[in-house]
Amino acid sequence: MSRVASALVRANDWLRERFPVDQQVLISMGSEPVPGHLKRWWWCLGGTPAYLFIIQAVTGVLLTFYYVPTPDQAYESVAAITNQVRFGWYIRSLHKWSANLMIVAVLLHMMRVFFTGAYRRPREGNWMLGVLLLLLTLGFGFTGYSLVYEQLSFWGATVAANILQSIPLIGPDLAGFLRGGSHVGSNMLTRLFVFHIGALPTLMVVVLLGHLLLMRTHGVSPLGSPAGPDAKRFPFIPDHLFTEIAVALFLMFILTFLAIVFPAGLGPKANPLVTPEHIKPEWYFFWAFRWLKLMPEQAAVATQGLFIALIFFWPLIDARIRKRRPDSELSIWIGAGAVISLLTLTVWESLHLLH
Amino acid sequence: MSLDQKQKIIIALAFFFLAALTIVAWVEGGRRRVVKAPDAVVTSENKDCVDCHRVKSPGIVGQWEISTHAKSGIGCLQCHQAEKGDVDAYQHEGRLIATVVSPKDCAQCHEREAAEFQASHHASAGQILGSLDNVLAEVVEGFVEFDAQGNKVKPSPAAVSGCLQCHGAEIKVLDNGKLDPATWPNTGIGRLNPDGSRGSCSACHLRHNFSRAQARAPENCGRCHLGPDHPQKEIYQESKHGIAFEANRARFEPLMEAKEWIPGKDFEQGPTCSVCHMGATKNLPVTHDVGERISWTLRPPVSEKIDAAAIKAGKRVKSWQQRRKDMQEVCSSCHATEWVKNWYVQFDNAVNLYNEKFGKPATELFQMARKEGLLTEIQFDEELEFTYFYLWHHEGRRARHGAAMMGPDYTQWHGFYEVAERFYMEFVPQLREVLAEGRRHGKAAAAARIEARLNQILDSDMHKWFLGRMSPAERAARKKAAEEFKKRYAQ
Question: With a cut of 0.90, is the ipTM above it?
Fold first, then answer.
């Protein structure tokens, strides 16, 4: 045995003594055969949001080095990041675009899970954790957008706080909690900042770990008949890992392309005294914004709450339906109806803003 | 897909990603170059000036670099370039330039602003040669050397470093082409420039960055409008306008650089001097004629409506009613109509009180004494002249300005109280001494005429308390009020 080889053996022994983890277990976990359908690229959408989340965590830490969460300096610090800090524009653009792509990826992942019925017994709990992850992702989007402290984001936050206020009974307290007072100002900015870089990431990591843990313990949901694509299985490492690496590189390329061609811009600075002619949220809230315009505020907020509750508890509702009619395809129709409705509302609102 | 194929895809994507990162680095390199030379556009004609002055006087270049001018490529020569034949033109590093930048130069681009300014009282602030203030600075406080032909050989330092820094000097170009140190540097607002124009834009718009936020700050006007004779800045600070501005200053300042700073639109409280006197409202444009919205002149011994002098001179000017209407338009951005009208009633009453009770009587008596020969023709050689000057020029103005700008303490204690004390305790006794002195020097008839008028004034409704002739009804009411006051403070 060469000197190098014996040194490596000694180092391995040293590590195993101090970290007594059964390596065989780790190897078997990594090489556990996964269903054949995971060979399809479309089935990478579960890992994609996780990867985008890591990009956001890294770029977010870098942005925090320069961002100042006070009303008089927030905008200036974002402007400094964008215009003066070395590679600041790139990091900020990566952060922005990965946030947008993450929402797209989460929604696509959810749609895939929904339409393949992967949320059904025994995976109802994991669906619910997934819905929580979606809500946390949207929370990231809202708080991050507001931190820029430009006119539209400031007034978007103001409108959001007002919407929150209209929730019966708890609304005023919730809005007061978010704003840290009666109006949008330094308290709200501090709170949004704390949510964005502290509370939400912590919750995200905890829920994400729960989501992954359940996925591993239940195993990947089978697709189709046993004689279908899942008839063949293949090891997670390296087969599926390679797929994920390829997707990650593709995403980095796309994100960089977007950062160069459509770098994160900066609108006029927030002015609490001047309401912009058109207030608009980020695109992923367009549907909710349009819904608000279609009916009285309280009715809109109540129906939106109901809609989210319906999504959250859908596996339990679906189970009741299928208990009565095992062959029911109602979930497909309801899912398709929901997707079409959300898309219609989103397109409607964006067309309205175009005019 | 086989593992081999996946590896090839990964290699291809890694290559694309690296290529994209190379573009990022290239973009970043370009951006860094831009950051090093901020927004300032140094045109080829200005490059030499900027390069040299960046070393010799970096502050000037630094000021210019953060200006809006710099962003548009408006540089040194656009303002300082002179033409052959200009009185103050001189060769500098191969260029014909002038040190003084006059409103005529600024008018190349800011024509409307320059025209408004030329029509304003500010523009004629340099014409103070015959004023009492100038007599004080050149004769009483200072000293001017004249030659045999009556030309000033050496000016009074009190005037050069004092009055003229605000009012503006008449800039003189020496035979060697240099500017006379007796007249330059000077950024007084009514400066008389070598090119024949009046004024100095940089009196308010500090060169070379010409910041709007700085021009709108109350301290800007406070450079000259302060002190014992016209403490507008101190009164403003005492007023609720000043309090509101100071309380919100940190919030406002970053926004005050904007082109528009309109009350009720861009901000909700705390107008500064420029907002009311010059700023745009929802219906009024910006004006550089600061008198456009002033209805009274509070400067002279007896206040009159601002258009009175022009009307007497047969000139047609904007009426005081229209000026007041415009100011009320400003007030209406934040106040209700009734509030504004009632406030003007209070203001008019205060000015009328000063005029009727002190301004007119003191001025009439003082002028009588001079006309009748009881005072010498020499200005400021007698105590009564200083007393009268203090009464209208210092305390009388403070009372009126205090009322005009909502400074209660300046209206009362620094104003009316001191006017009253000066009138009853100094002016009247000193006038009686002047009359006695006149009698001793054969001017008994004149003294008698003045004394009769003095007694008539003191016996009038406003002054008869001084002679102990308060009406019984008022005496009783005052006694009752005094007793209640004593009870309140358990005296």
Answer: no
